Amino acid sequence: MAHPLSPPPVSSASLARSMALGHLPPPGLGLLNSLGVLHSPLDLMAHHVPPRSYNSPPPISTSDPTANECKLVDYRGQKVAAFIIAGDTMLCLPQAFELFLKHLVGGLHTVYTKLKRLDIVPIVCNVEQVRILRGLGAIQPGVNRCKLLSCKDFDTLYRDCTTARYVSANDRCSLSDRVHAILDLEAKN
């Protein structure tokens, strides 16, 4: 005997018979409607479970006026736009990427992948902070989103980007080129 919550058994003969009688499922539902559970695409949407979300936390509250005071801080020998939030110096991640990581990783998307793996969650800038960063030239004029990272978290990210785990045949530059780039960066610091 079938479990009371199991869907009714469907044989190819009963499916063929229901289709011959004109009981075709709505387009896009395929065989799902043959189970008698779903009657329209809306039923399918109502039973859909959303995928797990990996979104960033909401932007910084605009209620703290000091959170919108941008400073140019000296970090690793370069001037980087930063905000002081809850006592931490938070660097403009796209600008720090351009200055320190662009030659080490494929792109900013690679940085976000590394941050997820390192369990580091950057802070999302609010609208006013984005406006300020655009005005300073820290981010491109068309950019309307930006994230901030503490110096400590950026140090962790930088260390991860400069530590070779493996070298594949299709890497963009040779291992000696990477070693020279790392030594040049360390000499600057």
Q: How do the helices and strands line up, and which of them pair or pack?
A:
Blueprint: H1 12-20, H2 41-46, E1 70-75, E2 78-85, E3 88-92, H3 93-101, H4 108-117, E4 123-124, H5 127-136, E5 147-150, H6 151-162, H7 175-188
Antiparallel strand pairs: 1-2, 2-3, 3-5, 4-5
Describe the structure.
The protein is α+β, with helices and mostly antiparallel strands and 189 residues long. It has helices at 12-20, 41-46, 93-101, 108-117, 127-136, 151-162, 175-188, and strands at residues 70-75, 78-85, 88-92, 123-124, 147-150. It folds into two domains: 14-43, no CATH class; 65-188, Ski (Mlu1-box Binding Protein, DNA-binding Domain). The protein contains seven helices and five strands; from the N terminus they run H-H-E-E-E-H-H-E-H-E-H-H. A hairpin with a 2-residue loop joins strand 2 and strand 3 (88-92). The protein is globular. The model has no long low-confidence stretch (mean pLDDT 77).
Distinctive features:
189 residues, alpha+beta, Mlu1-box Binding Protein, DNA-binding Domain, 2 domains, five-stranded antiparallel sheet, 7 helices, globular, SKI/SNO/DAC domain-containing protein, DNA-bd_dom_put_sf
